[in-house]
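Thread: Newbie trying to understand structure tokens

Hi all, I'm a second-year student working on a class project, and my supervisor (Dr. K.) asked me to get a predicted structure for one chain before our next meeting. I've only ever worked with sequences, so writing a 3D structure as a token string is new to me. If someone could post the tokens and maybe explain what I'm looking at, I'd be very grateful. Here's the chain:
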Amino acid sequence: MTSFNAPLGIFYGVFSFVFGLLFGSFGNVVIARLPEKESVVHPRSRCPHCKNQISWHDNIPLISYLVLRGKCRNCKKPISIRYPIIELLSGLLFLFIYLKTGLNWTMLELIIFAWAGLVASTIDIDRRILPDVITLPGIVIGLIGAALNPDRHFLDGLIGVIGGGGFLWLVAYVYAAVRNEEGMGGGDIKLIAWIGAVLGWRAVIFSILVSSITGSLFGISVAAFKKSGLKTAIPFGPFLYFAAILFIFIGTDVMKAYLAIFFPFVD
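---
Reply by user tm_fold:
Sure, no problem. This is what the structure looks like when written as tokens:
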């Protein structure tokens, strides 16, 4: 945790949270429109039911949802609670990343990844796709950040991209060859490469391990309540994203301890 010097630290923390809320609100627009190949900037936000444009005072993150009691002012139909959840998650991510890193280039890189990854993961939950328009630029931006950020190493990011993407591609290829069916989408491969580009190769190992465990537990739980059993298809992207976010806050210490025990020769 970075030092928290009041009152300036409080101001930056509040600013980060509010900024995250605003980006979360925009993220909801991207989640709804990107899969439909619609513009994310025009027209203005509208009710998903009656399609009426939403006034600015009804589009204030979190507050408007509470004031309107989760309903459209015009048609009175309920608005999904996911809208304020995405806004709140985005705000909290921005805040906690600031508390973790302070104001620097690393913070900028991490909030870009956290926000875009949240959007992509939510789309994956809805549509079972991780949009290339998010993941591929994410890889490029991550590598550029690794080259320019003095607190990072380009080789670390490059190994993360090649090792992470290459490993999942190999797993997907072998699975498809053995089972004669697709077990992992190309979007997951690009997502882990993106994680590697931004967070490095250690994050790749951590994310694959954690996402495999959490994804398996979730899949077993879902299968227990569905007739499709273990054939139930679940998106893997959100589990990779969750693991990457977890790595940002605790993963470095966990991986250092893991490598020290099992791979003491690795620096």
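A couple of things are worth pointing out once you decode it. The chain has a mean pLDDT of 87. The longest helix spans residues 8-33. Feel free to ask follow-ups in this thread.
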